[in-house]
Each structure stands twice: as structure tokens, then as C-alpha cells.
């Protein structure tokens, strides 16, 4: 096999592993919704509210995965597997500590939190009960994130898939049993969904923790089982940048939904249908970005900036190719794909405008997602934070609120999203060309 084939094979393995992990939870949530939906409208609405709150919390903490991947890969590229594993140790302790704080806060304030989302008192009460149970699994969710991060960094692509699939598989089996009291299991109703979540997440988190414990004993040089202060500080710096970046996404998309709702039910439904497709395609492209993080981090750790540039080019080529395939499918099969989500003629008609914006943005997204991964792999999170926030403030948010003021409808909202992506394209391309991303040093030693 040639060097080029080997490089593309590495990209493929890492991306496939990441993709399975990324889509496993959304697939489980679909089953969860279907199972709880049999209880009636009120429990289903409560589950929706609870998962939104829990999802917002989890989304803000993805630094435990992305930041750890970059740092662990850098040490792995230098040939220091012990330091790479040490990054996982510190990240895992950070995950447990942050997770316990979240459990304490959310369990105490579950009622007021869900009432910010749910106006119906009965739904809010049920959602709060579900959330108080489900939040107990957050430390294990975060432990799995940290585990995915360091294991990707050391190129362990099989075990994360097995661990996540095992945990969510157990939840998938337990969910109908506990919700509906099947096969002699206790009939817990909506709370059974939360219990099934926690049990599955606990199993996955435990598997990651056991693997980390074994690695600390097996690495070539001793790895302390305790966190290292300098590493924690460095990871928190990355966390600050990635959380601010993530919050900018949340503000933009929540604003877009709020404005779309002002244009009527059909417009809001059409916006959400196309946005769900965007989110799904983002998972595909994000998997390639994660592969870029690991490979670029390792190349820079080995001191071979030229190899990192080669990885950047190849990941971008693959990402754009995937985006082009998706573009072709969406352009040819708009009606049948949209028909999967709704048969309402008004919604189908309204979806045409954002649909073609989505199709047009895909090549841009292919480049942006790939280079986001490259820059994250180099540890250039501060630059990504600043440019993402800037693109939101200059491109996305002004167009969203101008759409409301001037009645531009969904075309105005999606023009804002397109402007957001183009501005990010300019920013990440300029950074790549400058070469500054290849000279960033990561502080702290992971052992």
C-alpha cells in the first residue's frame, strides 16, 4: 500500500470510528422518543424538554473530547504515549469534577430550569422529575467524552465504538422494559427512560475508566493516576475557547428558530426540517474533522509540519467529496427526502428556500469543517473562538434580526447562515495559508 493510500486509510478509520460514536446517541434518542411516545403526549413533551436541557449541558462540554484529542495526539506523535495517556487521566478527573457540580446544580434547580422551556405546568413537573434522574449520568457522559478524546489521540479506533455501543445498547434494551414494565421489569413510566439512560451511560463510562486504569499501568513509563495541575490549567484554557465558540453557535441557531417562528407555523416547521438535515450532515463532516484533529496533532507532535499540511489537504479533499455527494443527493431527491419528515403541502413549499441554501452551502461546509478540525488538532482554539464569534456577530445574527425587521422570511435567515459559513471559510483558509497554526506549542505535560 502506498503512503497516500495509508494516509487516506488512517483518515477513513478515524472518521468511521468518530461517526459511529457521534450518531449512536441520536439513534438511541429516536428509540427513546418512540418508546415514551406510547405513554401519551404529555410524557413525550416532558421527555423533549428534558433532553433539550441535558443536550445543551453536554454540548457545552465537548472540549473534554476535542481538546483532549488534540493534546493527546501531540504527545503520541512525539512518541510519548505515557504523556498522551496522562492527558486522558487529567481530562477524566476534570470530567468527574465538572459532572458532579452539574449534578448538584441541575438536581437542585431542575424545576426552574425546565420552566424556562416548558410553559405547561404538568409537562414541566414531569420533565423536572426525568431531569433529576437523568442528570446523575452526566459525570459518566463526560467521562466517556474524555475517554473518546485520549483514545482517538493514541489511534485506538475500535474500543470507543465498542464501549459506546455497549452502553447505549444496554439503554436501548432497558428503556422499553422499564418504561412499560415488560418481562417482569418495574413499570416506571417516563422515569424508566431516565433510569435506562443512567445505567447505559454508567456502563460506558466505567468501560472507559477501566481502560484508562489499565493504560496507566501498561504505558512505557509510569503514568500517575492523579490529575496534573499544569495539564488541568491547559485543558481549561482550551475549554474556555471551545465553550465560547459553542455558545456562539447556540445563540445563533436559537435566534434563527425564534425569528422563523414569527413567520408562521409552516415556516418554522420548514426551517426545522432543513436544519435537522444540516445537523445530520454536520455529523458526517465532523467525523472527518475529528480525524484531522488526531492526525494533525500527531504530525505536529512529531515535528513534521509538512506532514500536517499534507493531512490538511487530504482531509479537505475527502470532506469536500463527501459534501459533493450529499449535495447531489439533496439536489436530485428534494421531494422524497422532504416527504420523510412531512406531508403538509405548506411546509413542503416553504422548505424549498432553505433547502437550496443548504445545497449551495455544502461545498463551503466541506472545507470549513475539515479546516476547523485541522486547527483544533494544532491547538489553535483561540483563533477559532475569535473568528467564529466574529462571523456570528458580523454575518449570522445581523441577517437574522434584519429578516424579522424587514420581513425577509426564511431567505433572510438562511442568507445569514450562508454569510456565517463564508466568513468562517475566509478565516480558516487565511489561517491555513499563514502557517501560524503549525507553530503553536501546547503547555503542560500529561503525566
Automatic annotation (TrEMBL):
<comment type="similarity">
    <text>Belongs to the multi antimicrobial extrusion (MATE) (TC 2.A.66.1) family.</text>
</comment>
<feature type="transmembrane region" description="Helical">
    <location>
        <begin position="44"/>
        <end position="67"/>
    </location>
</feature>
<keyword id="KW-0472">Membrane</keyword>
<feature type="transmembrane region" description="Helical">
    <location>
        <begin position="277"/>
        <end position="303"/>
    </location>
</feature>
<feature type="transmembrane region" description="Helical">
    <location>
        <begin position="189"/>
        <end position="210"/>
    </location>
</feature>
<keyword id="KW-1133">Transmembrane helix</keyword>
<dbReference type="InterPro" id="IPR002528">
    <property type="entry name" value="MATE_fam"/>
</dbReference>
<feature type="transmembrane region" description="Helical">
    <location>
        <begin position="242"/>
        <end position="265"/>
    </location>
</feature>
<dbReference type="InterPro" id="IPR048279">
    <property type="entry name" value="MdtK-like"/>
</dbReference>
<protein>
    <submittedName>
        <fullName>Efflux protein, MATE family</fullName>
    </submittedName>
</protein>
<dbReference type="Pfam" id="PF01554">
    <property type="entry name" value="MatE"/>
</dbReference>
<feature type="transmembrane region" description="Helical">
    <location>
        <begin position="130"/>
        <end position="150"/>
    </location>
</feature>
<keyword id="KW-0813">Transport</keyword>
<feature type="transmembrane region" description="Helical">
    <location>
        <begin position="355"/>
        <end position="376"/>
    </location>
</feature>
<feature type="transmembrane region" description="Helical">
    <location>
        <begin position="7"/>
        <end position="24"/>
    </location>
</feature>
<feature type="transmembrane region" description="Helical">
    <location>
        <begin position="162"/>
        <end position="183"/>
    </location>
</feature>
<keyword id="KW-0812">Transmembrane</keyword>
<feature type="transmembrane region" description="Helical">
    <location>
        <begin position="412"/>
        <end position="433"/>
    </location>
</feature>
<keyword id="KW-1003">Cell membrane</keyword>
<feature type="transmembrane region" description="Helical">
    <location>
        <begin position="315"/>
        <end position="335"/>
    </location>
</feature>
<dbReference type="InterPro" id="IPR044644">
    <property type="entry name" value="DinF-like"/>
</dbReference>
<feature type="transmembrane region" description="Helical">
    <location>
        <begin position="388"/>
        <end position="406"/>
    </location>
</feature>
<feature type="transmembrane region" description="Helical">
    <location>
        <begin position="88"/>
        <end position="110"/>
    </location>
</feature>
Amino acid at each position: 500500500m502506498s503512503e497516500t493510500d495509508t494516509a487516506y486509510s488512517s483518515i477513513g478509520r478515524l472518521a468511521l470510528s468518530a461517526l459511529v460514536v457521534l450518531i449512536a446517541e441520536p439513534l438511541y434518542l429516536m428509540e427513546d422518543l418512540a418508546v415514551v411516545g406510547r405513554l401519551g403526549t404529555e410524557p413525550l413533551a416532558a421527555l423533549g424538554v428534558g433532553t433539550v436541557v441535558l443536550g445543551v449541558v453536554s454540548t457545552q462540554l465537548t472540549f473534554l473530547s476535542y481538546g483532549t484529542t488534540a493534546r493527546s495526539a501531540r504527545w503520541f506523535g512525539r512518541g510519548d504515549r505515557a504523556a498522551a495517556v496522562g492527558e486522558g487521566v487529567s481530562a477524566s478527573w476534570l470530567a468527574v469534577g465538572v459532572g458532579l457540580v452539574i449534578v448538584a446544580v441541575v438536581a437542585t434547580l431542575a424545576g426552574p430550569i425546565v420552566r424556562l422551556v416548558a410553559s405547561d405546568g404538568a409537562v414541566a413537573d414531569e420533565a423536572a422529575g426525568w431531569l433529576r434522574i437523568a442528570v446523575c449520568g452526566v459525570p459518566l457522559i463526560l467521562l466517556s467524552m474524555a475517554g473518546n478524546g485520549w483514545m482517538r489521540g493514541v489511534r485506538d479506533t475500535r474500543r470507543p465504538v465498542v464501549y459506546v455501543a455497549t452502553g447505549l445498547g444496554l439503554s436501548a434494551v432497558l428503556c422499553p422494559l422499564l418504561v412499560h414494565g415488560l418481562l417482569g421489569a418495574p413499570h416506571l413510566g417516563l422515569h424508566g427512560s431516565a433510569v435506562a439512560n443512567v445505567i447505559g451511560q454508567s456502563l460506558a463510562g466505567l468501560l472507559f475508566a477501566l481502560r484508562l486504569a489499565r493504560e496507566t499501568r501498561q504505558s512505557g513509563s509510569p503514568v500517575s493516576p492523579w490529575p496534573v495541575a499544569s495539564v488541568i490549567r491547559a485543558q481549561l484554557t482550551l475549554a474556555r475557547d471551545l465553550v465560547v465558540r459553542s455558545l456562539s453557535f447556540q445563540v445563533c441557531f436559537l435566534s434563527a428558530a425564534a425569528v422563523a417562528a414569527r413567520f408562521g407555523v409552516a415556516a418554522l416547521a420548514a426551517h426545522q426540517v432543513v436544519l435537522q438535515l444540516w445537523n445530520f450532515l454536520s455529523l458526517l463532516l465532523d467525523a472527518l474533522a475529528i480525524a484531522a484533529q488526531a492526525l494533525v496533532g500527531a504530525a505536529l507532535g512529531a515535528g513534521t509540519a509538512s506532514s500536517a499540511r499534507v493531512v490538511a489537504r487530504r482531509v479537505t479533499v475527502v470532506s469536500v467529496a463527501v459534501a459533493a455527494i450529499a449535495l447531489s443527493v439533496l439536489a436530485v431527491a428534494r421531494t422524497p427526502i422532504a416527504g420523510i419528515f412531512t406531508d403538509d403541502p405548506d411546509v413542503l413549499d416553504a422548505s424549498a428556500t432553505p433547502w437550496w441554501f443548504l445545497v449551495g452551502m455544502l461545498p463551503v461546509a466541506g472545507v470549513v469543517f475539515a479546516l476547523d478540525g485541522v486547527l483544533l488538532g494544532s491547538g489553535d482554539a483561540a483563533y477559532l473562538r475569535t473568528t467564529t464569534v466574529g462571523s456570528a456577530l458580523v454575518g449570522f445574527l445581523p441577517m437574522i434580526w434584519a429578516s424579522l425587521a424587514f420581513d425577509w422570511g426564511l431567505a433572510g435567515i438562511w442568507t445569514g447562515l450562508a454569510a456565517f459559513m463564508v466568513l468562517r471559510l475566509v478565516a480558516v483558509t487565511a489561517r491555513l495559508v499563514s502557517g501560524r497554526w503549525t507553530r503553536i506549542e501546547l503547555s503542560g505535560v500529561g503525566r
